[in-house]
Amino acid sequence: MATEEDLGPRLAGRLTHRLKRALVDLEALHERHLAPVGISARELALLLFLEGREPESQQQAAARLGIDRTTMVGLLDSLEDKGLVARRPDAGDRRRNVVVLTEAGEAKLQTATEASDAAERELLASLAEPERVQLRALLERVTAA
To answer: Which of 10, 39, 49, 120 could form a disulfide with 43 if both were Cys (CB 3.0 to 4.6 A apart)?
Structure first.
């Protein structure tokens, strides 16, 4: 990655650059920490979304997560192949299928969440705990607007 000198102070100081750099670094850390668990960060996000929810169709889940239908099908196919989710007929409407976590998915979710937490801790290692809490709170405020 380019150094701050390579980029110059105007680009290096931009919020867009700082947020993107943090995201790229976090994605790399997630890839490293989640590899031994056998899932990707996107798959983890979908498992987290499905946990403890009323079952929804893959189209509903895709819409809520802002994922296009093709990408959602790929994610679900991968998770289903790993035995972590299942598509089942909706009890209230047999014409549609809903997506649910399997027992294996719930167990994998625990392990993957721990790996994700380790990746986040590594990214934020230079911050004191109150700063980590503050950063999360500030990002929540910014993204809630």
So the answer is: 39
